[in-house]
Design a protein that fits this description.
By secondary structure, the protein is of the alpha/beta class. It is built from 15 helices and 12 strands. Helix content is about 40%, strand content about 15%. It is globular and about 55 Å long.
């Protein structure tokens, strides 16, 4: 981010990140909107994701020459314009007909990876063809080791840079917004093979590493330092701290509350990714300062995808880049490598009740967006 980027002023229909949210709501059905914003049972874990971020305050340094700020990084051998990944989201085609192809095209054009879900459309190969830039394939386990290996071979042939397996879905949770609305998601109605996900174990991880040494393995859904340590012991390349956006285990911890113990357990032996209510530039600063190599965003890019397709996702990333660059400059950091935990003060007092959209106070006048 050079000096010109510091002076960037947004133009067009979307000039603030929160503006994508009502635009998306206007285009989505009640069922799909509920699926997008909802979580499990009491939605406590979702709220704690935001609470964990909001309870961190920044400790800025001054009199640092920040006339140029470098926001770039590398991940699994690819250069990234921002330390941001589009998280895997099921049924992206529910938000825009192009689904993962549209989102991936925007990510590649901007210069960041998309992590393509195995339960979104189009499929593995078509999504990869639309995204010539960095990309990762994410798998829900619905078969044995041979079934997983077949997906690995397809992902490698399609040009994916890494392979992620989600590990926090041993049972499918009760998402009461869907249940109360009597909405059976089409992709869930045809799902089979859940028993393979329920039985997935560290033995399967060992098998993967023994048989597929040429593609980095990420485990998504790590929620403790103990499991992060086991990841490293098994040679996992990427530890992805996530509680599924609050969609799996209710009454879990916020991701940013989990991150410090994961960093202590990993000790540089793997790359660390974190998600969980990441939606502003200051959120990215906090996560990188606490040790993450990259953050993943889910709901935010789905809003942009629904609002304006690939142009919306690209614009969202431009606005996020601007917010992130301004926050870096005001914090007194010229590059990601200069960030460290000393930039963060933990246990700052809360200033707003956490919910899906509490990072955007200008939405609070509309009851529908107050959680």
């Amino acid at each position: 981010m050079d000096e010109a980027k510091h002076l960037f002023e947004p133009t067009g229909d979307f000039q603030c990140l929160h503006e994508f949210i009502p635009a998306a709501r206007a285009k989505l059905s009640d069922h799909i909107w509920g699926y997008l914003v909802g979580a499990t049972e009491t939605e406590t874990t979702l709220r704690r994701n935001r609470m964990a971020l909001d309870s961190l305050a920044l400790r800025p340094r001054v009199c640092v020459d920040v006339s140029k700020v470098d926001l770039t990084t590398t991940l699994f051998g690819r250069s990234l314009r921002l330390p941001v990944i589009l998280a895997p989201v099921g049924s992206l085609e529910s938000f825009h007909p192009g689904g993962a192809a549209t989102a991936g095209r925007a990510a590649s054009a901007f210069g960041i990876p998309i992590m393509v879900s195995s339960v979104t459309h189009p499929g593995l190969e078509e999504a990869a063809a639309a995204a010539p830039g960095p990309k990762i394939f994410q798998l829900y386990v619905r078969g044995d080791n041979a079934w997983i290996s077949e997906h690995v071979k397809r992902a490698q042939a399609a040009g994916y840079d890494a392979f992620a397996i989600t590990v926090d879905t041993a049972a499918y949770s009760r998402r009461e917004r869907d249940i109360a609305g009597r909405f059976v998601k089409p992709w869930r109605a045809v799902a089979t093979g859940q028993s393979y996900q329920a039985s997935f174990s560290w033995d399967n991880v060992k098998y993967f590493k023994d048989h597929h040494p040429d593609i980095p393995l990420i485990l998504k859904g790590i929620g403790t330092g103990e499991d992060a340590a086991l990841c490293c012991e098994h040679g996992v390349d990427g530890v992805y701290v996530s509680n599924h956006g609050g969609r799996q285990l209710d009454h879990g911890r916020g991701s940013m509350d989990i991150l410090p113990e994961v960093m202590a357990a990993v000790r540089g032996r793997a790359r660390v990714i974190v998600d969980g209510s990441i939606c502003r530039g200051t959120d990215v600063v906090k996560a990188i300062a606490m040790g993450a190599d990259a953050v993943a965003m889910g709901r935010m890019y789905c809003y942009a995808l629904a609002a304006d397709g690939d142009a919306g996702v690209h614009k969202l990333l431009e606005l996020l880049e601007h917010e992130f660059g301004v926050a870096m400059a005001l914090a007194g950091a010229r590059a990601l490598k200069e960030l460290h935990p000393g930039f963060v003060h933990r246990e700052a007092p809360m200033v707003a009740m956490p919910h899906q959209h509490s990072a955007f106070p200008l939405l609070q006048t509309t009851p529908e967006f107050r959680g």
